[in-house]
Amino acid sequence: MKYKLIHANKSDFSEILSLNQKAMPAVSYMAEESLNYFYDVSEYFKLIKCGKENKIYGFLIGLTDNLTYKSENYLWFSKRYSSFMYVDRIVIQKDSVGLGLGTMLYNDLIDYSKYKFKNIICEYNIKPMNLTSKKFHEKFGFKRVGSQKTEGGTKEVLMMEYSL
Length: 164
Prior knowledge:
alpha+beta
């Protein structure tokens, strides 16, 4: 199959929301209001599509360092970094994990970001453990820079950095 990276459009919203909700708890719930916010403020919002029906197999939302975004994890990074691309979420359809689609999105994000920002930053869950994300980010060369408990201590995330 031939996959293509394209910019997200509002016409993709219902499919993006469905894909996001199926990926929980690896990613947080996303309401349409949040998706509209990301669409308006994101520096990077791309999809992986394939096939005649143009089905979405994954997406990545990247935010810059200059937003008033209230996410606990984004705020943690904002206090410590001045120039960054923050991966708010990357989602790959469950039956497509391991096909290189996450790598395709991250390589494109790195190409996009390398002359604009100092770092790409993100976090992944260690409570509950997201082993797929852990392996992926370690393989990609992200380094641990901290951790924090979120959502009233029900979750814990590992903060990661990739230097550009």
